[in-house]
Design a protein that fits this description.
Layout: H1 3-10, E1 25-27, H2 37-40, H3 61-73, H4 79-90, E2 97-100, H5 109-121, E3 126-131, H6 134-143, E4 151-156, E5 173-176, E6 182-183, E7 206-209
Parallel strand pairs: 1-2, 2-3, 3-4, 4-5, 5-7, 6-7
Helix pairs in contact: 1-4, 4-5
């Protein structure tokens, strides 16, 4: 498989995403495909109620089409091989950090297990998966004994100013203006991660973001 074929298989015709805020690259699908998040988006005061992925550049037809192509590609039998090739090609070995979904979320067990395998294939890359799919993550993590050390999943508390609920005890989490855990200070650096890599650090139990 070559790079062009990997892009076609995964729906990344122009390559992986490169969010300006953070180090490295990312992938994304439409936020409208979020299972829990799309419901939370209709709940006032939820962390999804003002989701950036429903605004601005994410609403351009070309972006929507790209998101849909990536979503449809998830069932391709060579998706794991192709995504492994893409991430391995683009990621800087001196700063090897990758975000799974700068918009969108995990879809099902197959989707999550595909990322588990990609992480296993690239042990030198640090993966961070922010997610609202608590039930799915707990089920899959309970079944996988050899969870990749480089795959960090953070369960997101559903409401702004809410501490991680009991259902998330024992898992890495994130909150929005809850005043607990490690504060995300991107707002002090022009909304950029800068040198911080807390989201990818499994020693950081909770990252507390500022509201958008």
């Amino acid at each position: 498989m070559n790079l062009k074929e990997a892009k076609q298989i995964t729906g990344h015709a122009s390559g992986l995403g490169k969010p300006s805020k953070m180090p490295g690259y990312s992938t994304s699908i439409s936020a409208s495909r979020c299972k829990v998040g799309s419901k939370l988006a209709r709940v006032p005061g939820s962390v999804c109620s003002k989701c950036y992925a429903f605004r601005n550049n994410y609403q351009y037809p070309v972006v929507k089409a790209a998101h849909e192509a990536r979503y449809q590609a998830l069932s391709h039998p060579l998706w794991v091989e192709a995504m492994t090739l893409l991430i391995g090609h683009y990621t800087d070995r001196d700063d090897p950090y990758f975000r799974v979904h700068d918009s969108g979320d995990l879809q099902d067990r197959h989707h999550l297990m595909s990322w588990v395998q990609v992480a296993r294939n690239l042990p030198w890359v640090y993966f961070w998966v922010p997610t609202k799919e608590t039930k799915l993550v707990k089920q899959v993590m309970s079944e996988v004994e050899d969870w990749p050390e480089n795959l960090v999943i953070r369960l997101s508390a559903p409401m702004i100013e809410q501490e991680p609920p009991r259902s998330m005890a024992g898992y890495l989490t994130s909150t929005v203006q809850a005043g607990v855990g490690e504060e995300c200070r991107a707002y002090t650096r022009g909304n950029r991660c800068g040198p911080c890599r807390a989201c990818w650090d499994k020693e950081v139990s909770n990252v507390d973001y500022h509201a958008q």
